[in-house]
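A reminder before we start the practical. When you read a complex entry, don't treat the lines as separate problems. The point of joint prediction is that each chain is placed relative to the others, so the output describes one connected object in space. Small molecules and nucleic acid strands, if listed, are placed in the same frame. In the example below there are three entries. Take a minute to note the order of the lines before looking further.
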Amino acid sequence: MAAFVPPNERPERSPHLPFGDCREAPFYGKDIISVSQFNREDLEYIFGVAREMRAMVERVGTFDLLKGKILANLFYEPSTRTSSSFFSAMERLGGSVIPINEVTYSSVAKGESLPDTIRTLECYADVIVLRHPEVGSAALAAEYARKPIINGGDGIGEHPTQALLDLFTIKEELGEVDGLTVTMLGDLKYGRTVHSLARLLSLFTVRLNYISPDILRMPPELIEKLEAKGVSQKEYSTLEPVLAETDVLYVTRVQKERFENLDEYEKVKGAYVITPETLEQTKDKMIVMHPLPRVGEISLEIDADPRAAYFRQMEYGLYVRMALLAMVLGKA
Amino acid sequence: MAAFVPPNERPERSPHLPFGDCREAPFYGKDIISVSQFNREDLEYIFGVAREMRAMVERVGTFDLLKGKILANLFYEPSTRTSSSFFSAMERLGGSVIPINEVTYSSVAKGESLPDTIRTLECYADVIVLRHPEVGSAALAAEYARKPIINGGDGIGEHPTQALLDLFTIKEELGEVDGLTVTMLGDLKYGRTVHSLARLLSLFTVRLNYISPDILRMPPELIEKLEAKGVSQKEYSTLEPVLAETDVLYVTRVQKERFENLDEYEKVKGAYVITPETLEQTKDKMIVMHPLPRVGEISLEIDADPRAAYFRQMEYGLYVRMALLAMVLGKA
Amino acid sequence: MAAFVPPNERPERSPHLPFGDCREAPFYGKDIISVSQFNREDLEYIFGVAREMRAMVERVGTFDLLKGKILANLFYEPSTRTSSSFFSAMERLGGSVIPINEVTYSSVAKGESLPDTIRTLECYADVIVLRHPEVGSAALAAEYARKPIINGGDGIGEHPTQALLDLFTIKEELGEVDGLTVTMLGDLKYGRTVHSLARLLSLFTVRLNYISPDILRMPPELIEKLEAKGVSQKEYSTLEPVLAETDVLYVTRVQKERFENLDEYEKVKGAYVITPETLEQTKDKMIVMHPLPRVGEISLEIDADPRAAYFRQMEYGLYVRMALLAMVLGKA
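Here is the predicted structure of the whole assembly.
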């Protein structure tokens, strides 16, 4: 009889431990909630595993590291890119995925709380990726869950796996992160990807340039925080002054809707589009990144340029997410 | 040449029979439509298989009993809980799932009949779980299908797998069903889960207490039916008189929308919320159940109490659904 | 370091080549965009593989030919039938499927172009099935993709896998295609399935009869094209004159909405419904086909007649799609 084992006395996150999971593995059973939980050593470890994942995918496509494990892909708002990427990551590791995309129409619509939904899903799955429009939702879910939670984006809060894949892209494409000049372009006020990436980069010795319309500047409190960590930062309103020194040009979209005054938008938008002419002024060895989707801010004409790294960036994302899934499930 | 084999002369539900399916297995090729199709012996058999499933999941997580089998998860209305549960059940058995959640926007929107949709899907799948808003839809589907149909809820009709997992929860948590006092609380008029569970319980020697607002009482025709079977039943409007004797407290939600007079709702609603104070008056060895989602009718403060069985109930559901899938596919 | 390998210098569509893929296999790495890309020899090859798939499914249900391969099932408009069929085809071959049904609410809603979506998904998947409302979308996707694209229907353009399964049905049910009289009934103006099938049939020696309301006649430019290829074609407004000679009766739906004048619709609709009486006037050895869903244009009373081939047609579709997936992935 199995009665009366209160949940809080049950073994922590280790239902299948005896069969190959490794309790000692770093990140085993851990949640991935925020970039602030990682130090440089963690990053090296994650990227080392991601590199192994890449080698395996290139050699055999798919393998059975997570055979028998189930991922619940819980998306309260749609995101084809993130959800497909985790889906593929789990399948390439031999695991299965329960796609849950309609939560808004379902239990949640009936008023169920996020903790209850999470506690239900962890009865069926071994790990949960959560995408949710509210800041802090992933941390809330992790507080209640016995199984690992991976934050797939919580509103304007964090999107740690995006920041990790961005950093992994830089590392793999340029070899080292220390010593680089990273120029961030576009909407630096609302873009959670640039915030998270800047935070991660503060663990390295880099120079950051911020180029944005005046109303979309990097938040002063974030600038202060990074300054306190000794990061060299400069703000500009156009790209020209820093193009020649830039190793990584990280482009984000400037959305029309951010502007109250459309004349203002029309005036600035041209300054934030990357064209073949832009690349004429850059180093030969540099990369252009973008979290995608893009809507005109990078000209299609440069897609074939070796410096255009944004589609490779997607692929690095696959390896980073495979690494994270394997790690929190104790298999890496 | 394969021409002119009329569907009705084709072998019944056994396309892969020579390879390990067992025709003699109880429930092989059968539909799961209503609780009324089970006797006590059937229940023992199902629960025995469910117990084996639990042992296997706890030992190895997933295994290949249904490798090569495909489940079509056909949901005409969303239900994260039921659909995820079947999804996970099939994946943990090594099978695959075709999720079909958008039927309302698709062929069906074009006016296709349920039998035609079913006869199409059985070309692709080995078993079909059907959730449909109309009473009788699962029976209709089963009439046309050559492959097994499992009723995942047909409107206010039946939800047999929910009733089976409820009964399995009681059995596993309390050891025996005979001799128990089961108290059902809340909306007993519209709640199909309590109706189905009461029917299943009538196969055992139990005492049933019904606690509900006056306008949400257990339907008289059901009470009569159970009385004819010799079940001891009593109705109350508050919980207090029966708390001390209750072995199973089955809580359901009292929906505001059921009340024409909101004053009436405000007056009664407090009487149907389970709090730590409620549990002070119960036995030490009893369980609180809920089909979930809950919206306030059980206080979060009792979640950690060993008597709070509702999240374990979800987990028992996984094992029962694994058992049913294995059984109708001839593998248990 | 993997930097600076421009996409256009990367090996073409062969990421996993060393491990069992066969570069010499016909259709390896090819896109399936239009029926016009096939000659009779190709069709024989495809159908040969489809026949092997059928034999394997009947013997073992599922097998591991595409283990480790991932299909992205990218549906910009819902189609339960086509999407479930590809889903099942991939699963029965041991592969995995990423279902992407919500594109309209997601990246695409944010304005992402189809080529960008495709180039993202091919980072995660090995083959992409694309259903899209715009004519030419599959060809556009194929232009940008390094991985194989299979057209799952592009608006009123093409639906090549439907045409292939239609032809395979005729071949399997009647043994030979040469010498047959194929009668197409219903909406011949907008029905892309009859257009594609007629084009494929022009590779054989067949006689085609077209029966439709005057406003829904086969497009004159298609008739001309087929005439140039020597196909014998005749148009009628009722079925009676050709019923006795018909080997294949291909029924499509006449939609009320096509008619400006509803009186006109009421007058003609009866002439396009197949009943037991219709079949009394046909050969014993002939078949009735329909792409489904049907909404009244074929009486349920003939479903049990051996000549009613439309549900078997669905099943042949599974084998044809299995064949195509295996072929473009170099495994057949």
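Discuss with your neighbour: Chain B has eleven helices and nine strands. What might explain this?
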